[in-house]
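cache lookup: miss for this entity combination. No prior model stored, computing from scratch. Input as submitted by user K.M.:
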Amino acid sequence: MDFFWLSVAGLATIAVLSFLYNDNPLYKVAEHFFVGIAAGYVVCAEFYNVFLPNLWNPLTSGTDYWLVIPLLLGLALFTRFSNNIGWISRWPMSVIIGTYAGLAVIGFASGDMVLQVQASLIPVFEPATVSKFSGDPSVMNFLDILKNPLFTLGLIAVLFYFFFSVEHKGGLKHIAVVGTTLLMIGFGAGYGYTVMTRIALLFDRFYFLFVEWLQVASA
Amino acid sequence: MAHSTLQKLEKLDRRWVFLAMALAVAAPLFFKIGLAPKTTPPVKEFYDYIEALPPGSRVLCSFDYDPGSKAELDPMCISVLEHLMDKGHKPVVITLWSTAPALIERNVNLICRDKYGKQYGTDYVYLGLKEGREAVMVAMGKSIRATFPVDFYGTPVEQIPLMNGVENYEQFQALINVSAGYPGTKEYVQYVTTRFAIPLLSGASAVSVPEYSAYYQSGQLKGLLTGITGAAEYEALLGKPGLALIAMDGQTMGHFVIIAFILFGNIVYFFLRREKARG
């Protein structure tokens, strides 16, 4: 039985990968199966993992009657399907948006803004790095001396790129160009990481096909 | 080089690129390369932090990923559990992703129960899923018992010995988040580490790492595992080679192919432009 299900997964993987050669009916079948099964899975998972334990069970066991309020708000969301009473759905939406906006503002302000700004305010020159380089004059220790000045200059250059109150021309243009270059390096690194993720996914599929299913390779 | 050949190469069918990539990534499954990754500071600090915890520390593990990111994060999840078991720590495992519970349960059973023979409820516990994302993170700061009244198997937390005396984050020595995105490390930084005194260690899919690196540099993360590379470095540090180290060979070969095609494309473009200039 295990091999049967492994084979279903293996054939589905091949069907999806076949799209790389060309669009074909096998791929379409796999795609439709995937969308249908994934949607069904999420509905079931949410029903059993969220609706029953968080709302239905406490409500029907008579322990938390106040849960009637979120139940009514939840049901009110479905009024969107009606042209006449669709406006009622704005009430639960306002609760959802208000709650998450409140949480997000506090989280962003304390976690991202304040602490990130604080961490960016570093001494431009750190004497300890120089003494470390004097003791061990290696390339890495030399780069350590440059770390803080480069970080500070890079930060200023990137921030200046987004500063539009003065025209970026003359000497200021060069600062903006440095900022753009650093941003491009950042985007390039981000893209490189994305490629890494995709290759990892591809390797995982091959591992499944050749090691777990067909067992023609060993790890 | 003849102009017609260059034009053909310029319009090379992209399926050749796919084939080359497939062969390169799959080859290490048949021919071992065994490249050893160099340990980077974020991974070393992740490892050292767990090493330095007192034996028997209670560690909250939030494993938040789905089958789509299993390739990168499953090896991390397994290595983290192995490390905790090796050091005698006691993981309390949760997930905030609705598609994760079965994946996580399999890993917890595979490592804690089957490999290390630990006692469920005393040495480790799996509380399962709680939907609510950031709201759950904040709620756990007030009361974990109220947020997770029962474990994954329906046992009330009052009956689980490992949960005795646990009220909120304060009773945990560390929080380890293996995250594929939202909700994950970013939200734990924003809603938990800034409000509650609990150190956060993160393992994330490579796509998220540029964003999370800033948190590591600012000290908001005590360690960071970066995609499959980070998982491989961590496996090497633990001395327990697993899937991530094998995958690194495929990763390296894949990168070689990409670099080769970038060079190839540029060379063809260069010659073609020169041919055109000559008329």
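stored under new cache key. The mean pLDDT of chain A is 91.
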